[in-house]
Write a structure and sequence with these properties.
The structure holds two protein chains of two kinds. Chain A is mainly alpha-helical. Chain A has three helices and no strands. In chain A, helix 1 packs antiparallel against helix 2. The longest helix of chain A has 25 residues. In chain B, strand 1 and strand 2 form a beta hairpin. Chain B is elongated. In chain B, strands 1-2 form a two-stranded antiparallel ribbon. Chain B has one domain: Cytochrome c oxidase, subunit III, four-helix bundle (Four Helix Bundle (Hemerythrin (Met), subunit A), Up-down Bundle), CATH 1.20.120.80. In chain B, helix 3 packs antiparallel against helix 6, helix 4 packs antiparallel against helix 5 and helix 5 packs antiparallel against helix 6. Classes of the chains: A mainly alpha, B mainly alpha. At the A-B interface, helix 1, helix 2 and helix 3 of A face helix 1, helix 3 and helix 6 of B.
Chain lengths: ~110, ~230
Amino acid sequence: MSEHIVPVRSYVLVFLALMGLTALTVGVAFINLGSMNTLIALVIAATKMLLVMLIFMNVKYSSRLTKLAILAAFFWLALLLTFTMSDYFTRHWTPTPSDWGPSISQPAPREK
Amino acid sequence: MSEVTSEHPRYLQHHFADMDQQNESGTFGMWVFLVTEIMFFGGIFAAYAIYRSMYLPAFEFGSRLLDVKLGTVNTAVLIGSSLTMVLAVHAAQTGKRKALVFYLLLTMVLGGVFLGIKSYEYYHKWETSLVPGLRFAPEVALPSGVTVQNLELFFCFYFFMTALHALHMIIGFGIMTVLVVMSWRGRFSPEYYAPVEVSGLYWHFVDIIWIFLFPLLYLIGGRYTT
C-alpha cells in the first residue's frame, strides 16, 4: 500500500500527550473555576479528539475526499446543536402572552 | 499496475482499477459510517446539554455520585487500547504477523479491562440503588433544589450513554476476534491490510466518544468542595 506509514515514535508521543491531557482535565475538575470548568473540560476533550483523529486515525495523511466527509460531519453536528440550543435557550427571553394559556381542551372521554 | 489486466492479486476486487482506489473507497466508506455515528451520538449529547441546563443542580450532584477514580482509570485504559490498535496497524504495514496478532489481542484485553471496570461501576450503582426504573432510592441526603426525579433523569443519561458506548465496544470485540483469526492465518500483508486499518478507525471513534463522555458525566459536576 502506498500509504504514509507513521513512525511508532509519533504514536507513543501522541499517547503520552493524551495521558497528560487526561491528568490535566481530572486535576482542573478539582479546582473551582466557576463556569470555566465546563469550558476547559470541553476544550481539553476537543484537543484529545483532534490528536486521535489526526494521528491515530491518520486523517492528517488522508485524501481530500475523506477530509471533506469529516468536515461535513462536524458541519451537520454544529447545525444540530446550534438550532436545538437556539430554541431551548431562548424560550424564556420573551414572556408567553397570557391568552396563550392552556386553552386547548382535551376531548371529553367517550361514554360507554 | 502492470499491463496484464486479466490477472490481479487475490485481495484486489475486480471492480477497482488498482489498490489505491480500493483502499480509498474502503477508508471513505468507513468514514461515511462514522459520520452517521457522530450524528447518532450528537443527538444524545444535545439532549444531555439541554436537560443539564434545565436541572443543573441535580446533574451536578449526580455527577459527584460517580467514581472519578474508576472513570480516570478507564479513560487511561481506553487510550492505551487505541495505542495498541495503531501499533497493530503499524505491524500490519511492516508485515510483522506475530506482532499484529499480539497487539490485536492486547487491544482486546484492554477493552475487556474497560468493560470489567464499567460492570463494577454498574454493580455499585445497583448496590446503592441508583439504577433508574429498576431500583432507584438514593441513600444519600439530597441537597436543596435536587429532586429524586431529576437525579433519576441524570442517571438515565448516565446509563443510556455509557451502555451505548459499551455496546459499541462489544461490537468492536467481535470485529477484533475476526481480525485475530485472519491475521493468524496470514491473510494480511504490507500490500493488503485494509480490514485492520478501517477497524482501527472504528475503535478510535469509540475512544473519542468516551473522551467526551468522561468529562461530561464524571468531571463537570464540580469535584471541588466549596
